[in-house]
Specification:
four-stranded antiparallel sheet, six-stranded mixed sheet, single chain, mainly beta, 10 strands
């Protein structure tokens, strides 16, 4: 069974940066993967996705600030987040994309506040 473990979240001031990691175990092949987030009282949304061939997609509001990448040798997907804003505050999760068929992990909390 595939297991996803997200890490790297924290409290950061507006304009700051964080790098999230998603460690994938239980699979020898990494599908296309996405980073999703869920803010309090809102639905979970996709913010970035990376295809198995490395092509990427971004939500408009994060394009130019967030970068998704993958290290297949380490079975890990990353999300570099720069110039963070209060509206980026959410719990962040990874999953395969677009069908999100892996069991969801615990997520990692990102709080952007001064």
């Amino acid at each position: 069974q595939v297991q996803l473990v997200e890490s790297g979240g924290g409290l950061v001031q507006p304009g700051g940066s964080l790098r999230l990691s998603c460690a994938i175990s239980g699979s020898s092949f990494i599908d296309s993967m996405g980073w999703h987030r869920q803010a309090p009282g809102k639905q979970r949304e996709l913010v970035a996705a990376i295809h198995s061939d490395g092509r990427t997609n971004y939500k408009d509001s994060v394009r130019g600030r967030f970068t998704i990448s993958r290290d297949n040798a380490k079975n890990t997907v990353y999300l570099q987040m720069n110039n963070l804003q209060p509206e980026d505050t959410a719990d962040y999760y990874c999953n395969n994309w677009p069908y999100t068929t892996y069991p969801w992990g615990q997520g990692t909390q990102v709080t952007v506040s001064s």
